[in-house]
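Dear colleagues,

As part of the handover before I leave the project, I'm documenting each prediction I ran so the next person doesn't have to rerun anything. This entry is a single chain, and its sequence is reproduced below.
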Amino acid sequence: MANSALVKHQPMQRIISFLPSATEMVCALGLSDALVGITHECDYPTEVVDKPVVVRNVLPIESMSQSEIDRAVAERMRDGQSLYQIDEKLLATLAPDLILTQNLCQVCAPSGNEVSQVLKALPKAPQVLWLTPQSLEEIFDNLRDLGAATGRDREAEGLVNELRARLERLAAKTEKLAHRPRVFCMEWLDPVYASGHWVPAMVKIAGGVDALGREGSESVRIPWDQLVEWAPEVLIIMPCGFNLQQTMKHVWQQFGPYRPSSLSAQPSSRLFDLCAVRDGRVYAVDANSYFARPGPRVVDGTELLAHLIHPEVFAWHGPASAYQQIDLPLLQGLLEKGKDYYLQGDAMVFTGSYLQRRGYCCNSGCRHCPY
């Protein structure tokens, strides 16, 4: 009888993620059980939402406008203050072997010196994997790096090959299209930011052209005159850090008929000068799920862009909550009695249809709220 080799099983790593995208990667490689700590923004897949939260945002962005967030972020960065609070006591208690973080964007997650200082306080120094992609290819490299750090090389390579194959199939189809529409991906509403990093490449693969985007570089602030001059045929509103309902709320707050008096009227007037608006091709998307987070779902986001840019060619088979076409007459305050509201005594009651097309819950107890 042959001798059988004894296999010594290594204890499962204890992983803490400072990034929603890293959390998605960990789970995509089948390591959700090894994930012992996450950020307040980690919401996918749903199996992670009850895990201990070690990183939280210090700004109450849920109650702030886009311009207020922009100013608050700029002030804290100018003063050398962090946008995030790391629970150092909980971090030490969880005793991670591996921490996943980034040094790409101070706004997106704890980064650089901030992370290094926290790590010095830990009784045992964990391995740190810095995930700082600026392109689709670098996102794939990060998946491989995570696979190497966790002993899941084969799974990582298989996932990368699958994701790349989907992009290649899509690109092969869009290359044959006769027309590539002008697209603008609005990464922030006030002030307006053009997209950067991997998003312009996603637009290109999806069969569009975004000359204002900065592929492989940081997103940049642009003036409305430049956007009007570009005259996008398709406008995709994707503010970084927001899901679809949150995006719709900011669209209405910034461009709708009932925007706060503190906001300038100019952005609203310039928006309605755009070709995409006149042609009804304006869409809000779930930026968190498909664009802002450099993880596996950027491939879904590229397929979503193909549908929005070329709906006659590409169908969307993903969740209905991925995007919503902006009802532009509604955004301009053009309400139709019966369809959008009805009167009950002296009160105006919004219909379920109106609230659905508005796209978000205002927490006012609307009688027909679908959310």
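The chain has 15 helices and 16 strands. The chain has a mean pLDDT of 91.

All the best with the project,
I.
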